[in-house]
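Chains adopt folds. We examine one example:
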Amino acid sequence: MTAYAIAHIGPGPVNDDVLTYVERMQGTLDPFGGRFLVHFAEHEVLEGSWHGAPVLIAFPDLPSARDWYASPAYQEIVPLRTKHLPGDIILVDGVPEGYDPSRTAAELRSAQAQQD
């Protein structure tokens, strides 16, 4: 099942370190089947606040995403970004084909009823 790395990269200076990080990113993703779906794209905030840039990277599965983040190649370049740009990054599994959120709601209702 497809998994995703979702990042909220805060505002900060775009300097040589950050540009080097961006230039080298794809090379860290390739061995793990990672590909950018969103990268510093224009966005519209509908609820809450979002100061910074969105990044969304797809991987074949969650183990591949974990292995990418822990890889020596990525860990070598990540300080180039973190020294200059704050960020939050999560790894998350996608939903399977045909996912129905009403089934999830029904399961949550059932679990809640058992607790009451």
Summary: The domain at 3-115 is CATH 3.30.70.100 (Alpha-Beta Plaits). The chain has four helices and four strands.
